[in-house]
Amino acid sequence: MSTAIGRPVDRVDGLAKITGAGRYSAEIALPGLVHAVLVTSRIPSGRIGHLDTYDAERAEGVLAVLHHLNLPKGGSVPALLPSLFGAAASGQTFFPMQDEVIHYAGQPLAVVVADTLDRAEHAARLVHITYEHTPAITTIEQGRDRAYEAEKIFAGFIPGRITRGDAAAGLAEAAETVDLSYHLAANHHNPIECSATTAVWEGDRLTLYDSTQGPNATLHTVAELLNIMPSHIRVVTGYVGGSFGCKAMIWAHPALSALAARAVHRPVRLALSREQMFSGCGHREEQEMRIVLGADRDGRLTAIRHHKLSPTSHFDDWAEPSLSVASSMYACDNYEGVYRLIKANTMTPTFTRCPGEAAGMFVMETALDELAERLDLDPLEIRLRNYAETEPGTGNPWSSKGLRECYQRGAELARWSERDPRPGRERDGNWLLGWGMASSAYPVTPPGGPQRARARIFADGSAVVQSSFADFGTGSATVMTQVAADGLGLPLERVRVQYGDTDLPNTAAAVGSAGAGMVSAAVHVATTALRDQLIAQAVADERSPLHGADPGQITVTEGRMHLRERPDTGESYAELLQRANMTDAEALGTWNPPSMMGTGYGTMTFGAQFAQVAVDPELGLCRVRRLIGVFDPGRVLNRKTAHSQLMGGMLWGMSQALLEGTVMDPAGRWSNASLGEYLVPVNADAPDVLIETVETTDTVVNPLGVKGIGEVSMVGTAAAIANAIWHATGRRHHRLPITIESVL
Amino acid sequence: MRPVSYSRVRDVATAIATVTADAGAAYLAGGTTKVDMLRIYAEASQRLVDINDLPIDHIEVQPDGALRIGAMARMNDVAMAPLVMERFPVISEALVLGASAQLRNMASMGGNMLQRTRCTYFRDAEASCNKREPGSGCDALTGVNRGHAVLGTSKHCIATHPSDVAVALTALDAVIHVQNTGGHHAYPIDDFFLLPGGTPQREHPLNHGDLITAIEVPALPVGRNSLYLKVRDRESYEFALASAACALRLENGVVAEVRLALGGVATKPWRARRAERALLGQPATRESFARAAAEEMSDAVARPMNEFKIELAQRTMVRALETLAARGDVS
């Protein structure tokens, strides 16, 4: 009966975005609106010596200059808890402007509020700050001798040391080993829309227009920071211009905008500048990894040892879980994973597109390629020989796994078996050509609590479905319209989905590729509940043609309830409601997800990627010509938006491989904090991308069997590219990004 | 940004008189660099005199065959002009490989000659920079200097000149025409761009109020066999790590005429005269190209992060020469 789900429906918000009619959080027009600008620390470590606001306060249009000496103290900083839990989700357990201590460059030290943005920016330059410097550590190299093994990382959810079997024994019995060290540059998210919040007080009630992946996360975090009741806060998230994780957790700016608005008694907009986006909402940390793989003569893994070293903040033991997916990818009884940290003068790193999976799998998948080379095995063959039929570590069955089909189809599309496996054999003018492949995987994680939606149908047979989730550019508003239409049995054009508002039924933040699965579950439950309620009403109504029928035999098509076997027997929702003198009917749907602590199944989205690269070794150029990805995402809600997300993810992976890296200046601040200097691909870099999905049915993860496609396609792309560069040139690369000077 | 006042002028004389009379005034052409500079506090003009209405945007051939490009001609219009594409493909290619389509539609040719370096320490108003604030020091020397220059540097400044088209124009011996209240001056392009030396704040010989009115490229038949090769991390919208503007004429497999200039590696658009001298009369082989390129870079001074540029620049020159040589004896 599904008719809308899966169809390549155009985005419901596409026209508004393309024409500029859609208003983003920094474009909300309000009477009396004024502008706040952050003044941030130049130095990474020390104290404020003197903070002189004399000139700033007297500049034209300035309403207030807030800093640690006059900022009204509020509540407490919530714990660092991933926003997938649906609770307060502070990005770091530090709130600025409470004292004169400086922990990192870019730390907010003052907020200037003025009547126009230009005046606020100018006055921000007039806040004169002297510093007392203390020694800083901002890179792995500077802090190497202070590294420690973490007890737990990632908000306390992942132990710092994970073992199964005996890695040392496994390595001792290996016929072949590789032992490789890697360095991966820090990354920043760089969505096109910088983070922004507009705050409005009406008495003791606060409305925040916030650019976020989780309006409820903003609500709960600000409630705790300001010590006000959640019931007195409303967060509205209309259009969001991308996130990539920098809007997954809640940083200082929403609360600061509210404090500024309270100070000046006017609505206040606080938008981070592009430069402030590099020190205002987290980053992917610089990381070193060392991996040791042991295998028997047939290429079966006997041991994996995978260690990571990375800087974190002074406040939190955070590392992205780079080892997790890589540890569950292949059947191997002996495993040792260790996270080591360095306390550094940076803010707490955070979720950054494919947090951990992209980095750890780059290491695993390139190391496995080197192992295959040593064993004279085809890279695809070594992966098949280590195929994990059950989840490594737990032995649990997979909720679904189509990886074998992904490998097979990808290899066909890439004509993998036809290539000359020896490196450096194919040339096109100045370009050496090569192919590489890698596996993809991304965990399916349920949200931390119930997810809700409300469905309301009017007597004319049109419906509105409400849920508080944010659509931050992924297309969730569109796919939820499809899910709602199918749940109710209505045509798409008779359904409107209202979202992005904490006054609507509760959902957790759309993070961790979990948004489509969890929100579709709530919308499905709500809309089918309303449908069943109306069917029950018809069955009970003596005047209905369906009176007395078995509800299980009734289905709904185009808003008309009818017997499945005898479609002419039935009536429309509108007829039923109008006859009963009802203007509408509604139902609340709640989806209780499986426990985050385990379903008894391994739950992952899988895929296989193949890349063709062209390398001009003389000029150091590496250009990707072709990317092929085949994935097993479970149910696809919209083929068009799914394709866009999968393609976007693969281009992130290309970007990770060849372009992206934030570089720490010797002065302890990010040196390339602009879109001119922090390189992301432009259209001219985009190769031909071919994407397919394989059919998988998953009855474990959520009602519609949606495994999520937000990030999986980034995993493995960089490895496939690096493996292809080896195939083109015979050279391995263990640093990301792979730059011109490393290819020369 | 700082408060600025703004006015618009319609003729050259008024423009020059207006800016000359006000030490805080500056010309505003396409604004693609100027407005950025003001926003990031790297420049401090208090008054902008908009010269977009000045009638100096023609692209035309002079009776002697020279190409005259009005200072207000937009980068894109020059790049797409058939006579430029035909007679000086190196100019057209350098323009098309620069900036983005949107910027090229706005940015003027005169403004391009005056664009400021992308050195992050110059653009960070609080960093030490002798170019922005003479005598304050140079954070780039010990900082992140992957993109910085290896030719023409001094202990006071290693900032790379960012322009692509100025490199092509340098190879072609263009002339910069300037007007001021005293009259008209013409600067050979290689004299127009100054080495930093002890005065990195002086990038050109212009005085306050001087207005570039035109760029003239002398008639040069070898210009028809020319190209611009730009090497960078991504395919578009990025400044060069190394680039070469090159024009070449062979006679019987021997270099009869060559023009070569480098971008992305020097503190000014860099005419590779040593390489040119080394090439003349030599066989058009990879070996002689490589020898000439090495000769050009023999005085290069690298920093830890940009050492690769010395090798990359040589390879870029060799590739440009090889590509043109492979097109045969075109004259």
UniProtKB/TrEMBL annotation, chain A:
InterPro entries xref list: Ald_Oxase/Xan_DH_a/b (IPR000674), Ald_Oxase/Xan_DH_a/b_sf (IPR036856), Ald_Oxase/xanthine_DH-like (IPR016208), AldOxase/xan_DH_MoCoBD1 (IPR008274), AldOxase/xan_DH_MoCoBD2 (IPR046867), AldOxase/xan_DH_Mopterin-bd_sf (IPR037165)
This protein's UniProt keywords: Molybdenum, Oxidoreductase
Single Gene Ontology MF annotation: oxidoreductase activity
Residue ranges annotated for the Aldehyde oxidase/xanthine dehydrogenase a/b hammerhead domain, each copy included: 19-135
Membrane-spanning parts: none
UniProt-listed PANTHER family: ALDEHYDE OXIDASE 1-RELATED, XANTHINE DEHYDROGENASE
Protein name per UniProt: Carbon-monoxide dehydrogenase large subunit
Organism: Catellatospora bangladeshensis
Automatic annotation (TrEMBL), chain B:
PROSITE patterns (UniProt xref): FAD_PCMH
Domain FAD-binding PCMH-type: 1-222
Any one GO molecular function term: oxidoreductase activity
Keywords: Oxidoreductase
Protein name: Carbon-monoxide dehydrogenase medium subunit
UniProt source species: Catellatospora bangladeshensis
Lineage start: Bacteria, Bacillati, Actinomycetota, Actinomycetes, Micromonosporales
